[in-house]
Amino acid sequence: MGIEKVLEYQGRDFLPNLSIDLVIIGYQEGALKCLLLNIADKWVLPGGHIKIEESVDTAVQRILKERTALEKPHFKFLSVFGDSNRNFLAEFKAFFEERGLPWQKDHWLAQRFVTLAYYSLVDIEQLSPKPGEFDEAVDWFSFDELPDMGLDHESIILKARNRLKEDIQREQLTYNLLQEEFTMPQLHRLHETILGEKLDRSRFQKKMLATNQFERLPKLKKETPGSNPYLYRRKN
Amino acid sequence: MGIEKVLEYQGRDFLPNLSIDLVIIGYQEGALKCLLLNIADKWVLPGGHIKIEESVDTAVQRILKERTALEKPHFKFLSVFGDSNRNFLAEFKAFFEERGLPWQKDHWLAQRFVTLAYYSLVDIEQLSPKPGEFDEAVDWFSFDELPDMGLDHESIILKARNRLKEDIQREQLTYNLLQEEFTMPQLHRLHETILGEKLDRSRFQKKMLATNQFERLPKLKKETPGSNPYLYRRKN
DNA sequence: ACAAAAGTGTTGAGGTTACACCCATGG
DNA sequence: CCATGGGTGTAACCTCAACACTTTTGT
């Protein structure tokens, strides 16, 4: 969708006052990262709207696919953000004016939005994120070094970060952040990163294997000194 | 709001396509119960819409207060129900026609709604639920004997039932279902009811007291044989 | 041979289970 | 004094934290 279309487009095909924001989380170089878009000097979460004839879950899948090009990306509901002053007016006004485009304060994008926030765990290596129609740039940011963020998106991203920490303790979600085949040391370091604390290596391994969710594959051939770790894969 | 107003009213003050549904849960005579409204031969959850100038949480509080007359009722987010075919068309058409009122298929109420479902735990004794504008009757139903329900409200209510079971195991939510002062046997039976299984009486009591969240009050004077139980109250 | 990495074993502390026991109260 | 209900104690069992030990591999 080109910029001309955006201008004339008044959201006719979408549910008004309702948006979707996505916290797309990846894991790279031992750090948790988040995909952000640059718009008018601020960074914001990727997102979109729900088509009239489309279920919310389908919309999330569609928007996710636009960003990740993955066929079946993981996603999980995070929270509703429904403050009465949630609108992008300032951001979009700046964006339009920067480009010398006409801005009306009753533009469709200036309305108040209730947003449904989801988080998605992806394997960065498999990804090819594409810049959207509105964003000048797309980049991954470590959760420890977030840029200046627009609207309330910083609180959304931090909520996702905390939710992940909680969810990982009762659900197996980490598969989505790793390749299909992975080693226990890799999984161990990932859990330590998410939880932000040291985990006993011995206990972690035994706990994971006790779940009986893993299929042990031949050992991985490494170049570094030390024993070669087994590869594992999810059963089924 | 009288029925005439409903007719001319086209939802101008509310966010369109977005509704709130409430699973109001109480505990009475040893059973978990849910508040339902009768509309056109079906029973539905109480609910409402979000005002343009109002946050989602404020809307939930307002709608809850309309139903319960409680000043600060408990509530917790349950889930988004966003199927593309979620509309009340059939129900409202029947409701209007029963009364000989004109019905147009493009009525505001016939649109597709994304609903935000919340559940609320209340002490039935403190309540005075008022019939809403649309409902012919209001009643409490045990979760084991739900009536014929409209739309997807049965799946919402069952989801709330299961969520409660999960949540009770990590959070103290049960206070809201009991009077301010309660005994351990009462709390014990409540947990057994919610979880649907027997819990060891001794262990339950010790676990609860170990949390150190309770203030022990003088014993309750009963009429029945056996030792009198202590009363407890939440600390703070 | 040595250091580093990975896998497994051991021990004790602390929690949980399933009861048993005791006390209070009304009939 | 007995049945009932409520509070507490206890021994067996299980789980888990902490650390030790062993094996594998590159230099």
UniProtKB/TrEMBL annotation, chains A, B:
The keyword Hydrolase applies. One of its GO terms (molecular function) is hydrolase activity. Keywords: Hydrolase. Residues 15-164 form the Nudix hydrolase domain. CDD domains: NUDIX_NadM_like. It comes from the Bacteria. Pfam families: NUDIX, WHD_NrtR. InterPro entries: NUDIX_hydrolase-like_dom_sf (IPR015797), NUDIX_hydrolase_dom (IPR000086), WH-like_DNA-bd_sf (IPR036388), WH_DNA-bd_sf (IPR036390), WHD_NrtR (IPR054105). This is NUDIX hydrolase. It comes from Croceivirga thetidis.
